[in-house]
Amino acid sequence: MTTVDAGRHAKSRSGLGGWSGRTIVAVVVVVFVLFFAIPIVWLLLATTKSARGLIIDSPFLPGSLGEFAANWDQLFGFQDGAVTAWVGNSALYALGALVITLIASIPAGYAMALTEFRFRRLLLVLTLIVMLIPNTALVLPIFLELNVVGLIGSPLSVILPMSFFPFGVYLTYIYFSTSVPRDLLAAARLDGCSELQVFTRVALPLAAPIIALVAFFSFVQSWNNFFLPFVMLPSSEGYPIQVGLTSLLASTPAFNPSSAGAQSVQLPTLALATVISVLPVLIVFLFAQRFLVAGMTAGGTKE
């Protein structure tokens, strides 16, 4: 094969590869739009419509601010302001679990990564095993334990089980094992720092990206948790918003015809409640994405 023929052959292969690559990208984009973007757009537009307009109007025709205000009033007037209480409960549970998670997970990951003690490897193996167990499988034994100490129905019955976050321990273990120079810690010890001072003054400032990542994952898991508070909280007054959505669903005549009455809600109101339930996670992600990217790439290279 001559040099010219080889060049033409290589060019044709690169052209074919480029065409194939563009086709794959186009297919992925189309699938994403069909299965993710379009439903989200419809959901947002549904909050601006009346129940009748949601059925007879074009699915992607915007409604009006007046209808949005009416849906808002109906939602937050449901059961004398129950939705406001549910959102507040979600914030309480998520932030409470977040604080305890950081207090417990960061020192635990640091200790397993940079200190030697008995049963260290066993603890790491147990952490990995607990990570693999579905959360729903742990709800029954947790319920029985908390029932013995009389915590069922209290905020602690939701906060405490979500506070001990094995994934956060493992993330910090990986970070401290790979991204914190041990020579730096040893130098701090030579300068007279105690182990607590080494941790608080040297290791923690270096671990800011992974702390942000653990905090984000903990907040999202706690905010979106449904089954645990559904089992632990017998009264709707303590429900988080994710569990409260089931009450709204049961009060929507489109899903439960027997619910028609003064306290019923319409489909646009239910759509608005769904948007509100995911909005805090979206806001946290938008403000914390710089730290999240830093945390996800942390530990990728060994110092």
From TrEMBL:
Keywords: Cell membrane, Membrane, Transmembrane, Transmembrane helix, Transport. The chain crosses the membrane at residues 21-45, 91-110, 122-144, 156-177, 198-219, 267-288. SUPFAM superfamilies: MetI-like (SSF161098). InterPro entries: MetI-like, MetI-like_sf. Residues 87-288 form the ABC transmembrane type-1 domain. CDD domains: TM_PBP2. It is a multi-pass membrane protein. It is found in: Cell membrane. Coiled coil: none annotated. Belongs to the binding-protein-dependent transport system permease family. This is Carbohydrate ABC transporter permease. It comes from Sphaerisporangium rhizosphaerae.
